[in-house]
Write a structure and sequence with these properties.
about 200 residues; alpha/beta; DHBP synthase; 10-stranded mixed beta sheet; globular
Length: about 200
């Protein structure tokens, strides 16, 4: 049985263990950024599919990206409009980003603030985490903690009763938008339309 309480999940994540928790889209597999390799191994994920850095608040993510004053203003406007929410921004990475987050292109990093109380509560205590959907690479995203427990017995999941009063995730992955230096390139269309 790998279901644990919120406090245990937070403590184990901070200690470098692989955890899973619900988000506003699909449940996440997560680890501290330096332990991102655990996610690649568990998912059997190709190194050319980067991880997303997720945090409770936008201000915790800005030090992981680098840009000029004009770019930060644009990024902040988009974040103010869509975060918390199902939008991942792929931006130029700062030196603070561990290479394991994006092994084949360490110059960029995807960042997101989920719109789910339990995810924000966890992230507020762990700090930003490396995340991706909870599933084997190429398979559909798992939707319940029980499914995650069955597929990833080594992963710590949250007791279902810790989040039973919340609206479940919508099952649609986040929209992924990459900054080109001038505008946004949509890498994956999800629930949010970026104009």
């Amino acid at each position: 049985m790998t279901q644990v309480s919120l406090d245990v999940l937070v403590a184990e994540a901070r200690a470098g263990k692989l955890v899973s928790f619900p988000t506003d889209t699909v449940p996440a597999l997560a680890a501290i950024p330096e332990q991102g390799e655990l996610i690649f191994t568990a998912k059997q994920r190709s190194q050319d599919k980067p991880l997303i850095l997720m945090a409770a608040r936008a201000k915790e993510l800005w030090s992981f990206v680098t840009g000029n004053k004009y770019e930060y203003q644009i990024w902040q406007q988009v974040a103010d409009q869509h975060w918390p929410g199902a939008l991942t921004l792929v931006l130029p990475a700062s030196p603070l980003v561990p290479k394991v987050m994006n092994p084949t292109d360490p110059t960029t990093i995807g960042i997101r603030v989920p719109n789910r109380a339990i995810a924000q509560k966890i992230l507020a205590q762990t700090g930003p985490l490396a995340t991706t959907s909870a599933n084997l690479s190429g398979q559909p995203a798992l939707q319940t903690m029980a499914e995650i427990e069955a597929q990833f017995p080594e992963v710590l999941t949250l007791y279902t009763n810790e989040c039973e009063n919340e609206i479940p995730g919508n099952g649609v992955p986040s929209t992924v938008a990459k900054w080109t230096g001038k505008d946004w390139q949509i890498l994956r269309q999800g629930g949010i339309k970026l104009v």
